[in-house]
């Protein structure tokens, strides 16, 4: 999968630093400092016929390309590299890596494995009799060239490297052919059967089928990675960026022997039948296990004598760190030099950060330079790993810091930290046929971005998982290796398939699953009662992660995952952590390492320097602000300590423009005060000043006796809706209110959540998503938000904007209810009739000044306008026409007249109507707030909007 972890192109003249040990690393930098502009190589495309199969009697034509460095000749022989592609790829998939290696002076032979692209044959999945034997014939082919360095007759000086499918080939070839001088297998397997049937507990060899990954493999083999993008190149997706589908455009697909089974494509019949059988059963039978073992390095590691650099990815749900660990131990047992390197990519994470890729490229070249060219001292067999530590200022991505340790400590680390997790037994349900199921990773995407997306949005399904959490960590723990935990389970069927996960939970409750990795466990012989269940040790996936102080660990035991094939029957399990007589304990391996200096680290120091400058600037701003704060009068006016709002001489100007000239008014407890005025009068500007959103040019504002200043603590006693509501549409009303209150930083118990909802009258609608709200519901939700904490003063700007009449009437009742219990409301509105019915007091503003204030009934006063309900509207109209002094009248409905009596008294007018034979049912003096308002401000058209 990863023929080379990085491709730093020659044209960008990038420095290759990272990897190695201390001074050795820096000394080796000279050979990597500058990449030449000239390619430095030529290519030779050739079809090579090889004899393959158990008897060597089958002929296969392999599509090859040889990259020869400039100057290679019979008089200047060069060492060679076999560069194998990943599953589903072709020789084109590794072209970029081959070019880079050729530029370092190696003859690089790439080829398309049989069954893929333009090569003939069928896919035998790295069979020793087929693909491995093919590679041996390619060694013979290299040995026949006069420009390749030889160690003996027919023995080329050669190294082998590749990722995933190609990585396993390099291990199997080194075990089968001792001519191989050094190998670099990347993100590959140890035992293919155990990789595809994962088991994280030593209870049974029968693991859990990775159905998603197996499906990706099989479907890719159906097309054989033919030219034109027919296949899914797992190598390019996982690591080295080769073209998906492998073959170049125009490539002629290899014919290969016809497969009579239409379900098999270019798969060899025996492998295809094995897949179809185990995919249906979800279990490995004895024949399948043996067949996969023949294609696994596990059984031949003792025959590998070639020095081995093993590279494995942290973001890899297909071949996790346990595969490289098993390979390392098996090879090192023979005394063969072995080095292990972990990086932050993999099948699920791509290349990882560029700084990581640079480190791996250096390690690879250093390894081959010594064992093939004899350059430098023998590379250290130390262990290196990486951890994401910051941002790459050059590539605008993440940056990984490499660490090194003298000896490889394995997956259990140098030491361990134990963290208790709590929680009693829980019942969880296994869904029928594993559906629905949680999504932990996206097999086959090879995208770090997609993996991060899944990690960010996926959650375990209700009823299908149990959680057990620790207390907040007192100090940070740097985990390097495979954590472990004991679990217990009970099942009425005696069997269970479970998925154990380790989450990092921050103080806000957000949980992160490292690289989306989980531990599948198949348990058999289970009791029906949890009290009788014995603890089982579960080895969690290998990770490199810093668990910060204050974070919690969460162990989740789930019953279904989309990437795996669990049990089909619906059944309830009981699960717990730890032994029955004690709490659960998570064991975290730690391996402190020495950071490896890299060129990219210099950018980190530059960034830190910039941050230091920003911090210094912020400190200066804070000092200046504090000095200004000390100059502000913080005294409290005892005379107004119980008055919600007291305003005198308020003025606000913007340059030469006067938005508010001089405003005086008071809001007392129990009052609902309406702030009225035509457009441009200064209402909204006044409210913005009162809320601390802008600073007054002059004047004095006291809130409960405290002088107003932006950010003043007394503002917490005010709730406001001034510039329209803003809510997240995908959240419910209740969730929006909760998010708003959390943002204030105030204790939840102070929110008075239920009280605010009751006053606002939202009812069950608060449970619905805001995107489904009407405009009126949004307004009521905004008012409810302003009421959270039941502030003593509520300030609202046009709360009835856009509401229909029933909603306006309800808002009226809401405001009147709120003003009870000694609270107060200040409301700005252009609906004068509603202010008249809602407010106890009013303040009329015109051209930036208060032209009237006081009780609403006092502002309305008396009026010459009278409403008359009469029995005969026509006779009454004729009578009024003959009555001298009446200014005018209007008909309002079938029986009502609106009469402006002018100089005629109400008594005289009624007497005249009665004498004329008109019956009068009601006489009502009429004067509205609108009348008073128009009398105060005239027909104002000042401004096109409020100030």
Automatic annotation (TrEMBL):
Keyword Hydrolase: yes
PROSITE patterns given in the database record: ABC_TRANSPORTER_1, ABC_TRANSPORTER_2
Residue ranges the record marks as coiled coil: none
GO molecular-function terms, A-Z: ATP binding; ATP hydrolysis activity; dipeptidyl-peptidase activity
Residue stretches making up the ABC transporter domain: 645-872
Record InterPro entries: AAA+_ATPase, AB_hydrolase_fold, ABC_transporter-like_ATP-bd, ABC_transporter-like_CS, Galactose-bd-like_sf, P-loop_NTPase, Xaa-Pro-like_dom, Xaa-Pro_dipept_C
Ranges that cross the membrane: 16-35, 602-625
Sequence ranges of Gly residues compositional bias: 239-253
PANTHER family listed in its UniProt record: ABC TRANSPORTER, ATP-BINDING PROTEIN (PTHR43335:SF4)
Name of this chain's protein: ABC transporter ATP-binding protein
């Amino acid at each position: 999968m990863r023929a080379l972890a990085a491709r730093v192109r020659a044209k960008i003249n990038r420095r290759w630093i990272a990897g190695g040990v201390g001074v050795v690393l820096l000394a080796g930098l000279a050979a990597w400092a500058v990449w030449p502009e000239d390619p430095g190589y030529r290519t030779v495309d050739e079809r090579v016929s090889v004899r393959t199969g158990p008897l060597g009697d089958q002929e296969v034509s392999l599509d090859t390309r040889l990259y020869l460095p400039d100057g290679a000749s019979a008089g200047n022989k060069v060492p060679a590299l076999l560069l194998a592609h990943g599953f589903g790829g072709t020789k084109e998939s590794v072209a970029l890596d081959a070019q880079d290696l050729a530029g370092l002076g190696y003859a690089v032979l790439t080829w398309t494995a049989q069954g893929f692209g333009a090569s003939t044959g069928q896919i035998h999945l790295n069979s020793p009799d087929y693909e491995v034997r093919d590679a041996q014939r390619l060694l013979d082919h290299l040995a026949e060239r006069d420009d390749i360095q030889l160690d003996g007759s027919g023995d080329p000086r050669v190294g082998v490297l590749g990722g995933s499918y190609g990585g396993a080939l390099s291990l199997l070839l080194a075990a089968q052919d001792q001519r191989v001088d050094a190998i670099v297998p990347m993100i590959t397997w140890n035992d293919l059967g155990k990789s595809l049937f994962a088991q994280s507990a030593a209870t049974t060899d029968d693991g859990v089928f990775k159905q998603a990954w197996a499906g990706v493999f099989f479907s890719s083999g159906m097309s054989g990675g033919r030219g034109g993008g027919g296949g899914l190149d797992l190598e390019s997706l996982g690591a080295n960026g080769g073209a998906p589908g492998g073959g170049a455009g125009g490539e002629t697909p290899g014919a290969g022997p016809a497969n009579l089974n239409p379900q098999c494509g270019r798969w060899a019949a025996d492998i295809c039948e094995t897949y179809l059988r185990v995919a249906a059963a979800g279990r490995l039978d004895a024949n399948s296990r043996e067949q996969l073992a023949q294609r696994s390095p596990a059984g031949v590691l003792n025959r590998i004598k070639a020095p081995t650099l093993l590279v494995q990815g942290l973001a890899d749900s297909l071949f996790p760190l346990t595969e490289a660990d098993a390979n390392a131990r098996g090879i090192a047992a023979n005394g063969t030099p072995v080095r292990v390197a972990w990086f932050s990519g993999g099948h699920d994470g791509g290349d990882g950060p560029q700084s990581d890729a640079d480190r791996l490229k250096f390690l690879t070249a250093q390894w081959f330079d010594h064992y093939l060219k004899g350059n430098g001292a023998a590379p250290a067999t130390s262990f290196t790993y990486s951890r994401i530590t910051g941002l790459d200022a050059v590539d605008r991505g993440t940056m990984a810091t490499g660490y090194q340790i003298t000896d490889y400590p394995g997956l259990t680390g140098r030491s361990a930290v134990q963290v208790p997790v709590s929680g009693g037994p829980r019942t969880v349900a296994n869904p029928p046929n594993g559906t629905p199921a949680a999504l932990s990773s996206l097999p086959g995407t090879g995208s770090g971005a997609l993996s991060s997306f899944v990690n960010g949005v996926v959650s375990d399904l209700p009823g299908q998982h149990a959680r057990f959490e620790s207390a907040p960590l007192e100090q940070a723990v740097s985990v390097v290796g495979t954590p472990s935990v004991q679990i217990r389970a009970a099942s009425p069927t005696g069997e269970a398939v479970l998925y154990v996960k380790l989450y990092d939970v921050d103080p806000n409750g957000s949980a992160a699953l490292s690289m989306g990795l989980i531990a599948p466990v198949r348990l058999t012989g289970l009791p029906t009662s949890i009290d009788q269940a014995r603890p089982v040790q579960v080895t969690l996936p290998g990770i490199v992660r810093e668990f910060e102080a204050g974070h919690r660990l969460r162990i989740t035991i789930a019953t279904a995952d989309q990437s795996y094939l669990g049990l089909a029957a619906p059944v309830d399990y009981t699960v717990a952590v730890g032994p029955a007589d004690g709490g659960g304990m998570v064991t975290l391996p730690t391996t402190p390492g020495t950071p490896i200096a890299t060129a990219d680290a210099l950018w980190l120091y530059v960034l830190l320097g910039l941050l230091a400058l920003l911090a210094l600037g912020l400190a200066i701003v804070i000092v200046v602000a504090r000095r200004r704060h000390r100059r502000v009068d913080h005294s409290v006016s005892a005379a107004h300590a119980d008055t919600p709002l007291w305003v005198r001489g308020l003025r606000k100007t913007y340059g030469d423009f006067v938005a508010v000239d001089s405003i005086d008014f008071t809001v007392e407890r129990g009052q609902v005060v309406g702030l009225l005025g035509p457009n441009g009068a200064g209402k909204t500007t006044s409210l913005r000043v009162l809320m601390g959103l802008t600073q007054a040019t002059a004047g004095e504002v006291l809130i409960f006796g405290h002088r107003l200043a932006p950010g003043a603590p007394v503002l917490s006693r005010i709730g406001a809706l001034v510039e329209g509501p803003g809510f997240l549409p995908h959240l419910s009303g209740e969730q929006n209110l909760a998010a708003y209150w959390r943002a204030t930083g105030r204790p939840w118990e102070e929110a008075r959540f239920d009280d605010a909802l009751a006053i606002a009258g939202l009812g069950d609608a608060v449970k619905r998503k805001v995107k489904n709200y009407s405009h009126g519901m949004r307004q009521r939700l905004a008012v409810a938000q302003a009421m959270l904490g039941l502030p003593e003063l509520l300030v609202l700007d046009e709360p009835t904007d856009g509401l229909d009449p029933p909603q306006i009437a309800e808002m009226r009742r809401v405001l009147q209810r709120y003003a009870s219990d000694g609270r107060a409301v200040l409301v700005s509105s252009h609906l004068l009739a509603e202010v008249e019915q809602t407010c106890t007091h009013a303040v009329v503003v015109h051209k930036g000044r208060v032209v009237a204030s006081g009780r609403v009934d006092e502002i309305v006063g008396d009026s010459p306008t009278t409403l008359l309900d009469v029995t005969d509207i026509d006779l009454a109209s004729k009578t009024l026409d003959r009555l001298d002094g009446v200014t005018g009248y209007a008909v309002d409905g079938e029986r009502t007249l609106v009469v402006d009596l002018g100089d005629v008294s109400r008594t005289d007018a009624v007497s005249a109507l009665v004498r004329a034979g008109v019956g009068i049912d009601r006489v009502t003096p009429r004067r509205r707030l609108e009348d008073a308002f128009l009398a105060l401000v005239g027909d104002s058209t000042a401004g096109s909007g409020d100030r």
